[in-house]
Structure formats: C-alpha cells, structure tokens
Amino acid sequence: MIKSRLIRLYLSLDKSALRQLKNWINSPVHNQHLKSTELFDFLFTRKKINKTTVDKKRCFKYLYGQENYDEKKINILMSYCFKILTEFIGYLSTENEKYFMQNLTIKYLSNRNMPKIAASILCKSEASINAQPLQNAQESLWRYQIEKERLRLSSNKTRTEHTTLEPLFRHLNNFYVISMLKHACLAASQHNMSQQEYKIDQLQEVLQQATQNKHPVVQLYLNSYQTLSTSNNTVYYENTAKQFIQHNEYLDKEEKREILLILINYSIKKLNTGADKFRRKAFDWYKWGLDNHLLIKEQHLSRFAYSNIASLGLQLKEFEWVADFIPKYAKVLEEKHRDNYIHYTRAKLYFNQKKYARTQQLLLQIEYEDIFLNLDAKTMLLEIYYEERSYDALEALLQSFSRYLQRKSVMAYHKEVYKNIIFLIRKMLDIAPYDKKAIEKLKQQVENTQPLAERHWLLQQIELLT
Q1: DSSP assignment of 305-316, as one string?
Q2: pLDDT (tens digit, 9 = 90+) per residue, 110-157?
Q3: Three-state SS for 196?
Q4: In the chain, pLDDT over 90 holds for what percent of residues?
Q5: Of 5, 140, 188, 287, which has fewest CB within 10 angstroms of its CB?
Q6: pTM of the full structure
Q7: Minimal CA–CA distance to 384: which of 415, 417, 347?
C-alpha cells in the first residue's frame, strides 16, 4: 500500500491541505461513500506513514473488522479514494487561482445579463491585482483577461460605444514576450548542460522586440537569456544581477529561484574557467538565496547546493560562517544524504583550516555513496599527501584515482577536471626544484588548462618550488 498512487499523492499534502481534505471528504457534495471516509480516517490516524502503519491488511481490518481479507475489494476502494483525492487537489489549484475564478464569475454574470454585478466584481478584481507586487507573465495574463471581460461588458451595452483596446493588446503582448523569454532561458540552460538544441519559432523576433520594451521583467528575462547564451560577455550577467536585486519582488517564488540559479551557475562556470572574482559572487548569491528562503524547496536544501555553499565559503576563508552553516542547514537535507554530507563538509572544514590529521581521520573512515563527494575527498587527500611530502601514499592514490575515473560513469566535463588535476600533480612531482624555466612553463600550463579545479592551490605549490 505504501507504494500505491493514493499514498504517494496523500504524502504530497502539507498540514494545511490535510485539514482542508478532512472537510472535503466529509462533505456530501464531494463524497457520498462512507467507506472512503473511513479509509481516509485510517490514514489520518497514522502518526507516521510507512510500510507497516499503512499495511493493506491492517487497513482492511480497520475498515471491515473480522471479514475475510479481499484484495480486490480494497483495491477498488483505494481507486475511488484516489479519484476523490485528485478532485480535491484540483479544487486546491483553482482556489489558488482566485483571479481566474473571478473572471469565470464575471463571464457568467455577463452572459446572464447582470452587468452591474459583473462590473462590480471586475473592479474589485482589478483593485486586487493592483495591490499585489507581481509584474510577471501571470500578472499580464490576469490583466489581459480583465480587459477581455471589460470589452465583453462594454459590447453588451451598445455597439456604438467607444472601447479602448490598447490595454488588452499591451497585456497580451507582455504575457507572450515574457513567457517566450522565460522558456527560452529554460531551453538555453538545458542546452548548456546537455548540448541539446531547441528550435524556437519567432524567438529572434521576440528578442528584437524585447530590446524596445521597457517592462522591467521583460528586460530581466532578456538579460538572463543573453547571460546564458553569451557567457563571454559579462555585461549581460551584470545587468541581470542589478535588475534582479531591483525587481525580484515582481516575480513569484519559483521564478525568483530560476533567475537566482542562472546567476549562481554562471558565476560557478566563470570561476571554473579561471575568473577568480566570481568565487565571491557565487558565494554571495548562495547566501542571498538562503536569506530569502529560495534555496529550500519542498522543505529540503539540495545536497549539491549544501556542498557548494560550504566549499565556496571555505575557499573564501569564511570558516566561522561555514562552521555555523554545516549543522544549521544539515537539518533540511534529505535524511538519506544527511550523515554523508555532514561528515564530508566537516572534513572539508578541517582541511581548509590545515587540520590535516583530523581531515584524514574523517576521509579514510568512509567511502561516500555520492560519486562527487568521493572525487573531492580523493582530491583533498592528494593535496594533503603532497603538502606533507607523503610521496608513497601520494603515488598510490594517483594510480588508484586514475583507475577510479576509468571505471566510474563520470560526465566527460568532470572526468576531464580530475584527470587534469592528476596530470598536473604528476608534473609537479617530476619537476626539478629551482629549474626556473621548467617551473614557469608549468605555471603557464596550469593557468591555461581547461577545465580545472584547484587551480589556486596548484599555483601556490608551484610558487613554493622556486
């Protein structure tokens, strides 16, 4: 039963929705089946939903007492309850779309020749839209629908009355342009990750039109798209960052998160290509996202974001901040990843504080389930062995690390990053101390190698060879 679609959908509801569900299933308008009410009561009485507490036979006994267990009977009831639950979720969705519901009401009243009541509701709806901060595609669609119903009411009065159509076209156009740019950003993001090409009809026309449109959200998405499409020109990134800080209140939470991730990912990409100033930018964007509650989604912080935030903070010597961050935000990691990531980030903290004995003690205790944690853990050990001149341990790890990369399914970009680290450490081991010509050549090689992590550390060690 725990794997049934009914339970999976039930578990998606928060506490507020569960309270509303109780009213829904007890209303004869929505549910006239007694046993379905009892099945939901069975779920409500479970303090925790797991394989044992929602065992199908236990549920059957709750519903039917000593009656012989009948698999088919309870499956039919569960299907009926699933139907009730999907209808309830549909109701929740429409309840959140209050302007959509108001427009349907206005349309109904207009069609039944009650224009005064319809006009009154239209005015209230428009005032409500004016009072909220959004200026995104959704807001433009709401305003377009308002203008459409205003036109309907006007046409019902007299065919000769002058009607202003400009607002209708303006809001419709803004909805189209913002929506196109928003989804073009999504396509560009996916292209950057997977090289998948998308053919987007009319995109060039929209981009050209957007350059003339002064709407703040149009400009924000235009610069966001250009940021994703032309990574070598940082002007678009700077424009996006400035506009996002100024106008982020015009976006809903999910849209804010999407733009924030564009800024973070761009910063990290530039950092990985040697633009060191983007380290602070990436870290500050992550902190901004935490402070504005944008990085915690469905009550969880991504383990990748958790790791990136800690790593960037440590690279910037923000040791006290990271020491506070590790336990504070570990609480919102998914439980199955929590212990590994606490363990790893603490090791990383000790490593950056040069507490190498404590770092090795942690890193040698465990083989992480996440391949990227293992890759970074092995990199830390390489650096420790090199700095402590533990050459036998270093040589053994270089060999085992190379074999690890060969046998593991690592994305080509990341595989190249770690292959380059191994290659350059080997070059440092082979170089003769005080050979200025060879050292300078190696330094240039490190500066020019792409892609490469740990560039700063490698350059530091090369300086020590002179």
Answers
A1: HHHHHHHHHHHT
A2: 888 899 999 999 999 999 999 999 999 999 999 999 999 999 888 766
A3: coil
A4: 74
A5: 5
A6: 0.78
A7: 347
Q: What is the rounded CA–CA span in Å between residue 225 and residue 176?
A: 15
Answer yes or no: are the C-beta atoms of 405 and 415 closer than 8 Å: yes
Tokens of 378: 């092995």
Question: How far apart (Å, rounded) are the C-alpha atoms in residues 257 and 292?
Answer: 10
Q: Phi/psi of residue 296, each to 5°? A: -95, 110
Q: Are 181 and 206 in contact (CB under 8 A)?
A: yes
Nearest to 273, CA basis, from 423, 417, 86: 417
Neighbours of 76 (CB within 10 A): 12
Q: Is the pLDDT of residue 221 over 60?
A: yes
Q: What is the CA radius of gyration of the chain?
A: 29
β-partners of residue 297 are: 300
Phi, psi dihedral angles at 301 (to 5 degrees)? -95, 130
- Is there a contact between 57 and 42 (Cβ–Cβ < 8 Å)? no
- Distance between CA atoms of residues 304 and 310, nearest Å: 10
Tens of pLDDT along 388-400? 999 999 999 999 9
**Residue whose tokens read 């119903």:** 149
Whole-angstrom CA distances from 337 to 121, 271, 331, 333 are 50, 27, 11, 7
Q: Where are the beta strands (DSSP E) in 129-232?
A: none
